[in-house]
């Protein structure tokens, strides 16, 4: 699913250069549930955003589903991203002026999906996530846990093969966080590949493998 080779990310400050990621080599197989852990500033979120193609200013080689991302144009990267990836942000990133239904429908509107088919897909997700009763509400009318549930519904509505989640329970209390992780576990059991960044050992335990970063280097992988 994912193959990273010698991924490096750095910033220049005059004549000096600060590395955020150094020679990162990672393989993630289809159907895996992998957690990326490490102290603050280790490069975890940077690595996840490179995988999600939100960041194009890096060096190295990245293959996604056997496509050489490092060789693709911006247009082709966007196409590949839409085809394969659902991204879950810590701060939800819902659009405040759209209802729950409209937020979930948004990624489908960017694809060549007919309206009737989109309506069916959104209705199915609303039902699966038990949020049918919330479909006409706006994000500011929801709790943090409900907002994150909607954000995940939006990420999976187009049935991506890969979900990338950046501290998905970071703003939630423990019960809400556990519900979100149990949802990820069910999605993974159904075949979705999941990569999450987390500080929580309890959350990492839902996955099958942990990649640990420190100062931009992969220091452990179990």
What would your notes on this structure say?
- A hairpin with a 2-residue loop joins strand 1 (2-13) and strand 2.
- The strands form two sheets. Strands 6-7-8-3-9-10 form a six-stranded mixed sheet, sandwiched between helices. It has a four-stranded antiparallel sheet with strand order 2-1-4-5.
- The chain has a single domain (2-221), classed as Rossmann fold (3-Layer(aba) Sandwich), CATH 3.40.50.300.
- It is an alpha/beta fold.
- The longest helix is centred in the C-terminal third of the chain and has 16 residues, at 174-189.
- It is built from seven helices and ten strands.
According to DSSP, the number of beta strands is 10
Strand content: 25-35%
Oligomer: single chain
Number of domains: 1
Query: Low-confidence stretches at least 5 residues in length (pLDDT < 50)?
Result: none
The assigned CATH architecture is 3-Layer(aba) Sandwich
Side-by-side strand order of the widest sheet:
6-7-8-3-9-10
**CA gyration radius, whole angstroms:** 18 Å
> What is the fold-level CATH name, i.e. the topology?
Rossmann fold
CA-based shape: globular
Number of helices: 7
Summarize the main sheet: 6 strands, mixed
CATH class: Alpha Beta
CATH superfamily: P-loop containing nucleotide triphosphate hydrolases
Layout of secondary structure:
Blueprint: E1 2-13, E2 16-28, E3 33-37, H1 44-51, E4 59-64, E5 67-68, H2 74-84, E6 85-88, H3 100-109, H4 115-128, H5 144-156, E7 162-166, H6 174-189, E8 193-197, H7 201-204, E9 209-214, E10 217-221
Parallel strand pairs: 3-8, 3-9, 6-7, 7-8
Antiparallel strand pairs: 1-2, 1-4, 4-5, 9-10
């Amino acid at each position: 699913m994912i193959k990273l080779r010698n991924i490096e990310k750095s910033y220049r400050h005059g004549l000096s250069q600060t590395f955020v990621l150094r020679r990162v080599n990672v393989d993630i197989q289809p159907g895996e549930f992998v957690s990326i852990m490490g102290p603050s500033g280790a490069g975890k979120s940077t690595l996840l955003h490179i995988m999600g193609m939100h960041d194009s200013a890096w060096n190295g080689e990245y293959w996604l589903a056997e496509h050489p991302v490092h060789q693709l144009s911006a247009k082709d990267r966007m196409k590949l991203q839409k085809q394969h990836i659902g991204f879950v942000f810590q701060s939800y990133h819902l659009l405040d002026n759209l209802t729950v239904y409209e937020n979930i429908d948004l990624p489908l509107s960017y694809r060549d999906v007919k309206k009737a088919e989109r309506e069916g897909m959104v209705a199915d997700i609303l039902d699966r996530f038990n949020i049918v009763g919330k479909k006409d509400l706006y994000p500011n009318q929801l709790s943090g846990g409900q907002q994150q549930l909607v954000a995940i519904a939006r990420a999976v509505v187009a049935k991506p093969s890969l979900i990338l989640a950046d501290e998905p329970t970071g703003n939630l209390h423990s019960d809400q966080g556990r519900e979100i992780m149990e949802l990820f576990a069910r999605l993974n059991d159904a075949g979705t590949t999941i990569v999450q960044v987390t500080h929580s050992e309890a959350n990492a335990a839902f996955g099958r493998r942990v990649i640990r970063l420190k100062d931009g280097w992969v220091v452990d992988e179990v």
